[in-house]
Design brief:
With about 200 residues, the protein is mostly helical. Strands 1-2 form a two-stranded antiparallel sheet. Bound molecules: protoporphyrin IX containing FE (HEM).
């Protein structure tokens, strides 16, 4: 299909790339006392992004809404069957298998945020630290699966999902596109992130 329609609104795209960079940055700065402030600042931004995404999942645009990718087991199984038959169904939003990774990534991000804040308050330090570490390692595994899924699905459906998460556009019918990108909200998110980072690390 040559026609492209807007699928990912701008806040969802900003959320995606900011939280992905924050996770990777926080991971790389987690071992040294010297980079602790950067780790904590990135952790706060990641937590803020996840909280925003949880709200946006209820009030956001069509494909950002949780209801658009809350697939039950039968949908996941029938998608798997269609994959094995070599005739994978095409989804304009998240596909049923990709959505499993997405639920796990959102839950993992939330767990990291909550346990990170608890660690800063010295609450139940040992157990919380253990959960924070387990969640980090689990996230690394799910991110690897997420990336394999993104590239496999791009190859299978001959579409560039990474580009779609940058531009917001995917091949589709007019009726499948969303109407508003909410660029102003995404711009506000970026301003808040930059101001918070600059203030915290001043
Ligand atoms: C360079 C690395 C990454 C690439 C290329 C990438 C790419 C993508 C793409 C293409 C999608 C849309 C999938 C679809 O069409 O259904 C997506 C969604 C998502 N990715 Fe990534 N991703 C990356 C790293 C990460 C990381 C590190 C995380 C978590 C820390 C993450 C979490 C998510 C989440 C939560 C979604 C769902 C977006 C939403 O609906 O809000 N991604 N990613």
């Amino acid at each position: 299909m040559s026609q492209k329609v807007l699928v990912w609104d701008a806040p969802t795209r900003v959320f995606h790339w900011v939280q992905a960079l924050c996770f990777l940055g926080a991971y790389l700065t987690s071992d040294s006392e010297k980079t602790r402030d950067i780790h904590v600042a990135l952790g706060y931004i990641l937590f803020g992004m996840i909280v925003f995404r949880l709200l946006w999942g209820f009030v956001g645009t069509r494909y950002a809404k949780f209801s658009s990718f809350a697939y039950g087991p039968s949908k996941i199984i029938s998608y798997l069957v269609s994959l094995f038959k070599g005739k994978a169904d095409h989804f304009v939003g998240h596909n049923p298998i990709g959505s499993v990774a997405i639920w796990l990534l959102l839950s993992g991000g939330l767990t990291l945020g909550v346990t990170g804040v608890m660690l800063l308050q010295d609450d139940f330090e040992d157990i919380v630290e253990e959960i924070h570490d387990y969640a980090t390692n689990a996230m690394l595994i799910v991110i690897a699966i997420h990336l394999i899924g993104v590239f496999a699905s791009s190859f299978l459906h001959k579409e560039n999902l990474v580009r779609a998460m940058i531009t917001g556009f995917k091949p589709g019918e007019d009726s499948q596109g969303i109407k508003t990108a909410y660029n102003w909200l995404a711009a506000m998110m970026l301003v808040i992130v930059v101001c918070f980072g600059a203030y915290y690390l001043r």
